[in-house]
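Researcher: Here's the sequence for the chain we discussed earlier.
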Amino acid sequence: MNVPTPRKPAPDSIDATLALLRGADYIGDRALATVLFLALKMGRPLFLEGEAGVGKTEIAKVLAKTLGRRLIRLQCYEGLDVASAVYEWNYAGQMMAIRLAEATGETDRDRIEHDVFAERYLIKRPLLQALEPATEGAPVLLIDELDRTDEAFEAFLLEVLSDFQVTIPEIGTVKAVEPPIVIITSNRTREIHDALKRRCLYHWIDYPDAEREIAIVRAKVPGVSSRLTAEIVAFVQSIRKEDLFKSPGVAETLDWATALTELDAVVLDPAMVSDTLGVLLKYQDDITKMQGTKAKELVDQARAELRVGA
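Model: Thanks. This is the structure I predict for it:
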């Protein structure tokens, strides 16, 4: 389990926010730093949309690490409900408590009910955990891939984010003393309702340009040579222009750079590119389309572009 670093104050300017990101090897642009600074300053959730693998989730991890806060992650999926996201009761423990009370001759029903609904039988899920006070400060709450849930859960989440509180019928209302830092991500497989977006600041994270992607690879995979890094990024930038079912994200670029390093690659070789496309692309139709002659064409194109830019 990662222990958070000592609590640090939130950045006091856009430049300080940009430096905070880059200090954790997150190469973001000024537009992202601006909206992140405002979200922290205004205490508003930040809603991030973009293709999978462009670094949305990583922002929450960077904030938790650099600000010394606990990271609480709610991974969304179809069918996610209150029991999995907020709380549920330890029914087995409650039944044992009831039987023990009966065995000892306890007959006061109100007392038994009070005892079995004590907080020690409450199983706290991510949203409830995020409302609890902490000595290191309010946690970073990551609500990841919200678009995977249904509209019913989205409506419930709207209520939670409005007042940062949850009502548990048997106990009462639990309200955050200090609202958590909330990062919500979506891969836009469906549209999120405007009512939730209105409560958030919004930012679209796109694929980086070549210059920024080179900087990302150098920061995350420092063992790759400058030449190979440039060729990898030029190839990935070119392949994103092709008609693919799923273009590779930055995460795939980093995985591919790592894989090529493990194979002792010095420059891109069309045969090696074809053999390792499964690291970069995740659908067989895309891989088949890019193998062989097409891989060589894109490698040659990437090298030509680098010569022109040199």
